Structure formats: structure tokens, C-alpha cells
Please model this.
Amino acid sequence: MDEIIKACPFCNQGANNKRKSIGNLEHLHIYCASQLLVGARSFCHQKIEKAIFALYYFASMREYGTPLQEALRISSLQERMERICSDNFSKNYKS
Ligand SMILES: [Zn+2]
Model:
């Protein structure tokens, strides 16, 4: 798929945008500055954050019997998820 789309159809619209952007999925999902895509990404990030917060809240209630904000330490689930994210980040972006 990355090799099929050579130029981003959103960045390359308009006469004053001379810079051609590679239209791969990474560009579309992370870097594209198109206002429509930036708005969609922001909307999705808020939904994901809200879902993760609800998950951590549930885990805290289940493990400690207290809401996330009142727990003295993070839940085992949150600890594991953060460790996995950190490991994946290290594998993908540091080398
Ligand atoms: Zn773009």
C-alpha cells in the first residue's frame, strides 16, 4: 500500500502547496496537516483517551475498590499496558 500512493491527495491540493507529501498510511494517520484529517485525528484521540480512562477506572475499582483518582497506586492492568507501550515504543522508534 505504501508504494501505491506516491503523493498525499490532501496535502497536495491547492495551488499554493508546492511541497509533495508522500501519501503513505503513516503520513495520513500521523503527519498530514490537512485540517480535515487533523480534526478527525483529534476527535479519535479524544475517544481513545476517554475509553482508556474508563478502562483504568474500572481496573482500579476492581483491584482496589477505589476510583482511579483516589487509588494510592496504579492498577496492575495499567502498569502492564504502560510497560508494553514503552517496550513497543523502544522497539519501533529507538535504534
Ligand atoms: Zn497529507
Observations:
- The radius of gyration is 19 Å.
- The chain has a mean pLDDT of 84.
- DSSP finds three helices and no strands in the chain.
- The pocket of zinc ion is lined by residues 8, 10-11, 21, 27, 32, 34 (CB under 6 Å).
